[in-house]
Amino acid sequence: MIVLEMMFGVLIIGGIAFYLGCAFFTSRFFYSNAALNQAMTTSHSAENSSFLNPATALSFSPVSILVPVCGLDAGAWENWSSLCNQSYTNYEVLFGVVDPQDPAIPILKELANKFPDKVRVFTGLQPRGINYKDSSLSYLLEEARYDWIIFVDSDIRVPLNYIEIVTTPLLDVKVGIVTCAFIGHTPQSLGAAIASFGRCFDFIPSLLIARAIDGGLKCAIGTTIATRRDALINYGGLHLNRIGSDYNIGKRASAAGYVVELSRYVLESDTGTEGIGDVYQRELRWARTIRFNRGAQYYSMIFCHATVLCLPLLLISHFASWAIALTLVCFLVRYIQILISIRSMAAPNLIRWLWAVPLRDLLSFVVWVMGSYGQNVYWRGRRLRVHSDGLITQSES
Known about the structure:
By secondary structure, the chain is of the alpha/beta class. The chain has 14 helices and 13 strands. The chain has helices at 2-31, 34-41, 54-57, 76-84, 105-114, 132-143, 162-167, 190-214, 229-234, 245-255, 276-294, 306-316, 321-344, 357-371; strands at residues 63-69, 91-97, 119-122, 148-152, 156-157, 175-179, 182-183, 224-228, 259-262, 267-269, 376-379, 382-386, 392-394. The strands form 3 sheets. It has a 7-stranded mixed beta sheet. A 3-stranded mixed beta sheet has the order 5-10-7. It has a 3-stranded antiparallel beta sheet with strand order 11-12-13, covered by helices on one side. Strand 12 and strand 13 form a beta hairpin. Helix 1 runs parallel beside helix 13, helix 11 crosses helix 14 (357-371) and helix 12 packs antiparallel against helix 13. The longest helix has 30 residues, at 2-31. The two termini are 42 Å apart.
């Protein structure tokens, strides 16, 4: 029992250090350029945002936005319209759909009618690989008129100056990718809140720690990947048979010597009324993706779950005073870290859901345990099998 007490004590102390690291790197990243943050948070107001100057936009290259679509996500019309209402001078938006009967197609056609000079829709795109998302992107990439490219997930809502925000760093030839994180700023259900918690309190802070340890970002986030066509070719282009291809494309860009830039702008992703089971399946897929891309480093994430580890410590120690004190310190630091994340990412509406943090932490721990083994994942109704370095095949079982 003493050995177990010591083991859990060390893990919890390590977890406290992890929470402190999250708080430090989150605060440093989001407040290192206060002027930029202010411009971004006021991006929906033309009179307040310097990014909306048409003269500035003219100095940038024309841009092709490529959006793979599968089904209808919450707020689809609003999300897609936001891509078509940009302040940028010269750009196009291409949507690609695999299934010719997809329920999104009528809405996309309506969007194309409303924005005929901006939108093109391609349907019935026969899969070129197991990863239908990147398969659709490969078709759109062939149709894209411009050499500055933005890959965008279909469930993201963007501000008026989105294109300028994510393409400005590409003016530096050393930058090969610009990517954006995302959260749900105003969740309307427990499942949506749990999903947003995972991104705001855990994923983004962990990403910033990994960025510091690795000396730069070595992955990308699928919500936004802005790049130049020449750079995309240099780091290997799209891979059509990988899970987590966004993660992998960032890794390959970094290995090719390019800088992967993380934008300080956090996008809005409305997860609608999805249930906790939906969140679990998606995050299990992400966990196994990370495991197959990061290898043994995945198991060091045990330190990310200190609050959950406090319960077995209390039980083993029979609620010893030192164990109670360590638990209180752990939860105090965790909630301070959470509040710093909320403030840094301008998400005050998450505060009313803070009672669900223990449930979020328990779910994260379960996802980590289940992600530490196994190869099968569910993705948009399909069962896939993950192999080395994230390669995937269709699962028969």
